[in-house]
Amino acid sequence: MSTKSQSWADSNRPMRVFERVLTGGLAAGNVGIVMSPHGLGKAAMLTSIAIDHAMSGMQCLHVAYGKSVSDVRAHDDEILEELVRTLNVQDRLGARSAVDRNKQIYTYATGTLTPQRLRSTLDFLSTHAEFKPGLIEIEGWPDFRTLSIEEMRALRALAIEYHSELWLTAHTSHKDFVNKEGVPDYI
Fold it and tell me: DSSP class of residue 121?
């Protein structure tokens, strides 16, 4: 990688401010949950996190629930273009290439995603595609109101076993009862 490419990769990564807040990022083996009501940008934020990591050379898996690969790709492309424009990245092709090389999309039909199915996907990608994501972004799943503690533990175990950051979304409502940290009681 040239010095010019390293410059945009280091200084224009979208997550550099967020990482400062998190004192270095989420880290492998941990689960991050982005919470907000519908329509406020949870999926865009997760996609930005994954694109940022892919731009820095980390393999990332974008798991979408109930969507097609083409719809997810179109949304990812919009986010990447906006990031490249906003950050005034000079090497647009280098940014696109880094994301294409390091980010894969995998979709599940509604009602078919479980921690066990995700494990099967990760095993397949590792064995057959030499793809071991350091970040797993899951869009649209799980529903925390129905997720069992065993399923949450299984997701955390996957993050630990695969040495991955695992990012999820949680839909909230202004009607939800929240604790003193502002977290709904079902999370």
Answer: H
